Amino acid sequence: MRPLRIAVRKFDPFEAAIRRQFEDFARTASDAPPLEIEALELNELHARLLEQPSLRDGSIDLAFLCTDWLAEAHAAEAIENLRPYQVSAPISDFPHAWSPSLVSLQDFAGGFWGMPYHDGPQCLIYRKDLLEAAGLEVPKTWDEFHAVARALHDPARGLSGTVLALFPDGHNGFYDFCIQVWSRGGEPFGPGARPQLCSAAAEAALDFLRQLAGDSAALAPGARALDSVKSGLLFCAGRVALMANWFGFAAFAQRWEGSEVRDRVAIAPLPKGPGGRSVSLNVFWVIALAAGSTQKPLAWAFLRHIATAPMDKLTTLEGAIGVRRSTWADPEVNQSIPFYHQLESLHEHARELPLHPRLAAVSYAIDELLARALDTEEPSRALLSAAQRRLEEILR
After folding, report:
1. Is the backbone peptide bond immediately before 121 cis, with ω within 30 degrees of 0?
2. 73-86 b/e with 16+ CB inside 10 Å = b?
3. Which of 83, 213, 378, 391 to pair with 258, CA 20 to 30 A apart?
4. Spatial CA neighbour of 251 closest among 338, 310, 185, 164
């Protein structure tokens, strides 16, 4: 029997957790083949799964998919509907053991297209020791966030006030822009993913990101080369005071052996803009079953095993973020990561991006908008108008 092949987002905790989960699975499935893990960076993973036929030609059995990519994968008939498998060999406590926000995005077009694996909405992550020493309050608005970043910025100590992840991978820059619009009471997209960039909220959002990105007295250098992982690792290294980033990096900073900020990490809701409210973003990783897999019963058996409470807790203990409510409330996990139980409340204020097969192309267009905003002095209104036309072409 050939190996069971899984493509994963390159991140040490993902690889370690999957490897241990398969070892545990193999102890209960005596005929299980070896596991073969293919770990790829974000852009490489998207290309491997959705620009090549690897999900359809049998070369991959299971794959990590960002929820942004689900509609694209479904439209390409590249992933398997898991609902029939749930009927024939069900997960006993599904879906009740998960927050509704983690089992709704992949439930569309009459099917269920991936099991949630790694979660962690965006939140404010900060060094509580630095804020307390400076007598500063946790910022509740974006203007306060910027002011606190400037107050704590201290290059002589190797400390930046905050960080932006503007590497053009269709990921954090796009997400940051949407959060900024939402938190100012705007909507970047209407029904059917229709772009709505020509608004006062979108203009204010872009103005704020331009201002922050250009402030060397608040921001870590090299934002254009930083993705979410690299910016999170900067925080773990004690080189960033506060940031808007994924919950998982707060947990990683608390538990990772190499963390310089353990026991000095805290989280809070994201700040809000004028006339808006605090809004988080719900984007997560699922494991999908490849439509072309020749080992679908085995792949589903492994997926069912991963979904059990002990294996979900193992995901967390390896440094990723489990997706079951039992893990979020687990006493051992919360002793190690005191803010872990806050995941439930973060999900209550999380928004979702529209499901659309061209969402990846949309995200790269927003990256282009941000790049132009940082490279020119063209007014934000004109840049947004041009981006609106570009998105309309993409989605036409």
Report:
1. no
2. bbebebbbebeebb
3. 213
4. 338
What's the Cα-to-Cα distance from 236 to each of 257, 358, 367, rounded to whole Å?
A: 10, 34, 26
In whole angstroms, give the CA distance from residue 208 to residue 214. 10
> Which two structure tokens, joined as six digits, stand for 171?
């990921």
Task: Give the tens place of pLDDT for each residue, 136-195.
Answer: 999 999 999 999 999 999 999 999 999 999 999 888 899 999 999 999 999 999 998 999
CA distance 46 to 73: 10
Place of tokens 């609902």: 83
CA–CA distances in Å: residue 45 to residues 9, 51, 101, 229, 280: 7, 9, 24, 15, 25
Predicted confidence band at 29 (pLDDT cuts at 50, 70, 90)? confident
Tell me the pTM: 0.91
Characterise 241 by phi-psi region: left (phi > 0), alpha (psi -120 to 50), beta (else).
alpha
Query: Has residue 319 got a pLDDT over 90?
Result: no
Count each helix (H run) and each strand (E run) in the chain, helices first: 17, 12
Q: Any idea what the Cα angle at residue 382 is, between residues 279 and 221, rounded to 5°?
A: 60
Strands (E), 70-225: 107-108, 111-112, 115-118, 122-127
User: What DSSP assignment string belongs to 45-81?
Assistant: HHIIIIISSTTTSSS-SEEEEEGGGHHHHHHTT-B--
What domains, with CATH codes, occur in the chain?
A: 4-120+283-351 (3.40.190.10), 122-281+358-395 (3.40.190.10)
Burial class (CB in 10 A: 0-12, 13-18, 19+), 272: buried
E strand segments, 238-389: 242-246, 265-268, 280-281, 285-289, 350-351
| pLDDT mean across residues, the chain | 95
pLDDT digits (tens, 9 = 90+) for 46-96: 999 999 999 999 999 999 999 999 999 999 999 999 999 999 999 989 999
Tokens representing residue 77 in the block: 């008939």
CA torsion sign for 285, 290, 294, 300 is: positive
**Count of CB atoms within 10 A of residue 44's CB?**
14
Q: Indicate the angle between helix axes 142-152 and 200-213, nearest 10 degrees.
A: 0
